[in-house]
Design a protein that fits this description.
single chain; 241 residues; alpha+beta; Arc Repressor Mutant, subunit A; Alpha-Beta Plaits; four-stranded antiparallel sheet
Length: 241
């Protein structure tokens, strides 16, 4: 838990046990199947599917599992009752939270989220209450700085709107409209980001330390563990004491 990395303060990531990895695979398979059902099984023609497969590969999901999920969705046998729903919430200390879900039953999802939030001093918020505090952008994270100049040049010339280099990391953000172009440019340049995804990036942040930070981390972990939750974003920034 650190305050030096912009990305590490946007979306908390934790080490996964084997059981947690299985849950992650289940969520990714759901996303791949839904993406293929909605936009077809051709990754070149389906940006959402392409991104879901990228996430699967970065999580070391076997290729056979990925192919089965694509075939299931593209073949029309995927469950068509799942829908994308973003819930807005307040966490402890008034931090803003966006909870991205893929659910087949809102009547199950809403009480579950309300219960988790309530245990940590949080609550669900009305639509629009906190979403205006975030920008939806593409984000690339590089932990290998051996090609820093090449990364910066490629990013700037292919639509990036910000490149931030510090504390052993390079973070590149871009508008959604430039994400595919920038990803392809990175691939062609042989540049491999350690993380590449669409993110809700906060315009401003709320600094948390000590017990306040730990309490929010526990809340984020509980939210991420819910079966219907795909992603969790917050405007909290965790500061080392």
């Amino acid at each position: 838990m650190s305050g030096h990395s912009k990305w590490s303060t946007i979306k908390h990531k934790k080490a996964k046990t084997d059981a947690q990895r299985g849950k992650i695979f289940t969520k990714i398979v759901r996303e791949i199947t839904t993406a293929a059902r909605l936009g077809g099984g051709d990754q070149e023609m389906n940006p959402r599917l392409r991104l879901a497969v990228l996430k699967a590969k970065s999580s070391n999901m076997p290729n056979d599992n990925i192919k089965r999920a694509i075939d299931k969705g593209a073949g029309g046998s995927g469950d068509d009752s799942f829908e994308d729903v973003i819930f807005e919430a307040y966490g402890p200390n008034g931090v803003a939270i966006l909870i991205v879900t893929l659910t087949d039953n809102r009547n199950r999802t809403v009480p579950n989220l309300r219960s988790i939030l309530g245990k940590f001093g949080g609550s669900l918020a009305n639509k629009g209450a906190v979403s205006y505090l975030f920008d939806h952008k593409g984000l690339f994270l590089f932990s290998d700085l051996s090609h820093e100049d090449h990364i910066v040049e490629t990013a700037i010339t292919n639509g990036a709107d910000e490149v931030d280099s510090k504390e052993g990391e390079i973070e590149v953000t871009c508008p959604l409209s430039a994400f595919d172009t920038l990803k392809r440019a990175m691939d062609e340049a042989g540049l491999m980001p350690s993380s590449c995804e669409l993110a809700m990036i906060p315009q401003t942040s709320v600094d948390l330390v000590g017990d306040e930070a730990n309490r929010l981390v526990q809340l984020l972990e509980r939210l991420e563990d819910d079966d219907d939750v795909q992603e969790v974003f917050t405007n909290a920034r965790f500061i080392d004491e």
